[in-house]
Amino acid sequence: MRVDVGPVSDFEDHRVRIVNAGDLEVGVLRWRDRFFAIHNRCPHQKGPVCLGIVSGRLGGAAPGSMEVDEETPVLACPWHGWEFELERGRALWDKSYAVKVLPVSIESGRVLLEVGRSRD
Amino acid sequence: MYSGPVIDCDVHHARNTDAELIEYLSPGWRQYVTDRGPAGNVPLAVQDGLPNPHGFMRADTYPKGGGEPGSDYATMRDQLLAASDVRRVILTFGDDSHVAGHHNPYFASELARAMNDWSVERWLSQDRRLLSSIMVGSQLPDVAAAEVRRHAENPGMVQVMLVDNPFNRGFGHPVFHPIYAAAEETGRPVAIHGGAGGWANPPSTGGGSVSTYFETHVLWPQAIQTHLVSFIAHGVFEKYPRLRVVLVEGGSAWIPSLLWRFDTEYKGLRREVPWLKRLPSEYFASHVWVTTQPLEISPQKENVVELLRSMSLEDRLVYSSDYPHWDADEIDYLSTRLPSDWHRRIFFENACRLYGWKEEDLAPPREAVRESA
Fold it and tell me: Which of A63, A81, A94 sits opposite B275 (nearest CB)?
């Protein structure tokens, strides 16, 4: 089932907006010209993961260094700080642990979510 | 009981007199130490530890001819080496091991150098089974690294040992890294020996200093935990991917609890240490070994076994007696506390992996005593 959650212009860059899509509460992130949709429920303790901080993934090529990968948005759950990349929803420390992500498409300037099907 | 081959990873050898070590100092430092007229020589060992009410040594280890426990090869041979199929023993010094607790960094570095030469000439020359730690004055990490490299070609000098902490920073702090670069380069594991608290600043107990030897001995694992967490958090194993670490005399039953907590904290705090690429427990499992003594004694022995098994420590534990100290663990005793299918790994095989030895290269006891002994 596809759900229209509004025009692209309603979504501020680098911000998560909470929408209802069917029975799900979903956070929709606009990251420049890319969109991500995440079920607002952390697999850890069922916290509102989409209320957490979104930022480019921090990495360190060597001890003591900090580099930002702006191409990889990461969502940190506000309850315990567990981080998830948003392409597939995987935790940064365990690829088998993930938040549920929904497929997003843009048609005629509208943001559409595919509910009932995981992104991958 | 276990009757197979044994590698003992913590045996304390000692000197009887200051003169033994003074002989190995450079002429300048020898004069500094000895030229004090009636005042006697400058103390060589750091002496501000808490006293054990029974003494630190097993009473039966005092040599019959006099002298300090651990100071006489023949006594050690008869009591330790001949008592079972001991293939290798790693010597870890006595009070001198607190050399990094000296306030004078230059003196400490010279003492460490002299101690290593003393160990090679007085001990390794007597028996092929005897191997030594390389002591370093970590007050001067670059000098310490040079001391490690000085022994690179001597296969009898098998590990770099850290005990006291001169900088009030966990051992993973970059100030110590020159030592690890040398250890990795020369293929030597770094041994972190418990018991620095009370001998040097800072005390090894979190929350404040303690008042009795009883307290400090219970709390020895605290300092080891600090150093383990520090090593992993600072990314030492990312920076030196071939480095191995062995935790000596800090216990082991706490390791699962600490690593579970460590992994959980990493999930939420990763962005503070983004150079880490794996879970802390994964670094532990591929870089860290742990000596057995003192094995925690649970009322039901399977309780400790269950804890150790939960982190596959049967593949990371290496036997240590701690001879001639008062709380030494005997092979016969330890074998009653651990499952029999762990015995060969813990008494022998794991240490071979840690130190990079082939089992077949370790001579049985009858061939080990050097002809000159």
Answer: A63
Q: Is residue B279 within 8 angstroms of chain A, CB to CB?
A: yes
The second-level CATH assignment, the architecture, of B6-367 is Alpha-Beta Barrel (3.20)
The answer to whether the beta carbons of residues B264 and B26 sit under 8 Å apart is: no
Residue among A68, A58, A84, A73 at smallest CA distance from A15: A73
- Token pair listed for B153: 């070609």
- pLDDT tens digits, one per residue of B266-290: 999 999 999 999 999 999 999 999 9
pTM above 0.90, yes or no: yes
Segment (H or E) for B221? helix B220-233
B268/A60 touch (CB, cutoff 8 Å), yes or no: no
Q: What topology does CATH give the domain A2-114?
A: Rieske Iron-sulfur Protein (2.102.10)
Rounded CA gap, B241 and B31, in Å? Answer: 43
Tokens of B358: 């082939």
CA B270, CA B262: separation in Å to the nearest integer?
11
Q: Distance from A56 to chain B by nearest Cα, in Å?
A: 11
Sheet containing A104-107: order of strands: A2-7, A110-114, A104-107
Q: Check whether A12 has a pLDDT greater than 70.
A: yes
For residue A76, give the H/E element and its range. Answer: strand A67-76
What are B318-354's pLDDT values in tens digits?
A: 999 999 999 989 999 999 999 999 999 999 999 999 9
Spatial CA neighbour of A87 closest among A41, A51, A52, A36: A36
ipTM score assigned to the predicted complex: 0.91
Task: Name the residue ranges covered by the structural domains of chain B.
Answer: 6-367
Contact yes or no for A81 and B279 at CB 8 A: no
Q: Of B121, B98, B105, B6, nearest to B49 (Cα)? A: B98
What number of helices (H) and strands (E) belong to chain A?
0, 12
